[in-house]
Amino acid sequence: MTTISSNRTGTSSSNLRTDEDVIDQVVRPSNDTCLVEVQSKAGLTAFACSKNESLLLAGLRQGLTLPYECASGTCGSCRARLDSGDVANCWPDAPGHMKIKPAKGDILMCQSRPLGDCSLRVPANVVEGFARYELPTHHNGRIERLDRLTSDVIHFDVVLAEPMSFDAGQFVLLQIPGLEGMRAYSMVNYERRTRRLSLVVKRKPGGGFGDWLFERAAAADKIDVFGPLGSATFHPDEGHDLLMVAGGSGIAGMMSILERATNEGHFESHRGHVFFGVRTVDDCFYLDKFSRYVDRARGNLEVTIALSDAPPQGPVEGAHPDIRFATGLVHEVCGRDMQGRFSDRMMSYLAGPPPMVDGALRTLIGTGKVTPDRIRYDKFG
Amino acid sequence: MSWKYLCEVSDVETNSVKLIDVDGVSVLVANYGGGFRAMPPICPHMEEPLAESGVIANCILTCTKHLWAWDLRNLSMIGETERDLKTYEVKQEGDKVLALIDGELTYDFDEEGDDDDDFFK
How far apart, in whole angstroms, are the C-alpha atoms of residue A358 and residue A360? Predict the structure, then answer.
């Protein structure tokens, strides 16, 4: 952990538009709580933040519309400039630091905990927002039902002490004792006010959380959860046809969208196209779930598995005649298959490794002439 | 100030971009179907290289990194885009595309932070 000090001491506070009313409203529950002033395009606001909590989570929890995408150190979207005060940087090597200017006092709010009162400038409109269902917050959870789906993919449930409502497509941050930092994973299931979150993790070399899940995690293990987060969400009342392009564990949020769309009859009057990229047939998972969704959609849902490394083999394909198998990178397969079928009634959802998301964006915008307001994804790279 | 030769009209296909070096100045040439634009080679958002991240469709240039986009017909900003695209004046003479280049156009990525009043622009 490193300490970052504002490089503007002396002049900073005079630059803030003072608004004592705003500041006085912030309740300071204990001496461990710091006052965080935020100067944004929308003016001055403030919130209380414990020395043990990141600025981002504390602000979001209290309803402020702080900007973020990954909330876990990779994307740089929660950039702020520290005008006065000191913060501790919980993960100095976070990739998101490449996208900000630490020498000028820029910090990632998701990786910064206050060491005392501080003031920030945030290049966004920060106001008290509204939550569709509930504000994100901290939850206590316990692991249940660990199921290995492939050699490097594991499905597990987290049972919360208190129920959570989330939108299909949202994610939570997970933290386990002894492992610094929070990891972001999208929910696979969809249920209003549920205590059960179903999640899927693909193990990556050097990935501490994946290693823990595969080697040491057991049912009833405690896990800290923060959420729900994310804006790549599905809302049936918007009335869109759905295009989903996902790679690896990026399929998680799509499963949640399919679950909600299926249960609420969305495919009775709208079409859906799912493109799921994995390396080989052995890396496929959730095929039975896909088959059920395709069956219930009565011809309005197509699911295509794109195999990047090897052509499909007989047995798996044969067992799932309702699922299409193709060879190639998932965004290329999508581009070929959807040629002439992109429509302005469509909302597109993307999730997966950053190169896949980049490729899919090029396909959608270049080939599909899809406009950016019809594409939803949370940036993790 | 002078008109500099960029490329032949046929060098840049419709709906594509091409990076060209003009006397040491890196210029991105975009053919949007209705004409050509010449601009600095990076996105004014987060310095992404537009030769790789830029996609043109329906006369709109989109940086696929974070979906900032501009209509190349009138250079208006689309959607969430927050900064104008800077361009060099362009003209066609026969099969040749020329640009008026008087020094390199750049974006000041520090202005947001260097001066308090500019941080939010």
Answer: 5
List, for residues A92-131, the tens digit of each pLDDT value. 999 999 989 898 899 999 999 999 999 999 988 899 987 7
**DSSP H/E element including A157:** strand A153-164
CA-closest candidate to residue A126, choices A174, A63, A197: A63
One-letter amino acid identity for B29?
V
Has residue A328 got a pLDDT over 70?
A: yes
Segment B64-73 shows an average pLDDT of: 93
Domain that holds residue A29: 2-122
Q: What is the pLDDT of residue B95?
A: 95
- For A254, the 3-state DSSP assignment is helix
Cα–Cα nearest to A112, from A229, A1, A230: A1
Domains of chain A: total? 3
Give me the DSSP letters along A320-337.
Answer: -TTSEEEES-HHHHHHHH
Select from A353, A274, A284 the least CA-distant residue to A319.
A284
Domain boundary among A176, A206, A229: A229
Q: Which fold has domain B2-101?
A: Rieske Iron-sulfur Protein (2.102.10)
Inter-chain contact A101–B62, Cβ cutoff 8 Å? no
Q: Do A372 and B62 touch (CB under 8 A)?
A: yes
Per DSSP, which regions of chain B are E strands?
Answer: 2-8, 16-22, 25-31, 36-39, 54-57, 60-63, 68-71, 77-78, 89-93, 96-101
Check if A42 contacts B (Cβ < 8 Å). no
For residue A25, what pLDDT band results from cuts at 50, 70 and 90? Answer: low
Residues 6+ apart with CB under 8 A from A295: A322
* A117 near B CB under 8 A: no
Paired sense of beta strands A118-122 and A79-84, if any: antiparallel
With contacts defined as CB-CB under 8 Å, which chain B residues touch A362? 55, 64
In the structure encoding, which two tokens stand for residue B14, read together? 């419709």
Residue A379: CB atoms within 10 Å = 18
| Structural tokens at position A37 | 């002033």
Residues of A in contact with B67 (CB under 8 A): 361, 372, 375
pLDDT at B1: 66
pLDDT tops 50 at residue A11: no
Q: How far is A372 from chain B (nearest CA, A)?
A: 6
Q: Which residues of B touch A99 (CB under 8 A)?
A: 46
In a shared domain, residues A108 and A167: no
Retrieve residue B39's tokens: 């601009």
Q: Is position A128 within any domain?
A: no
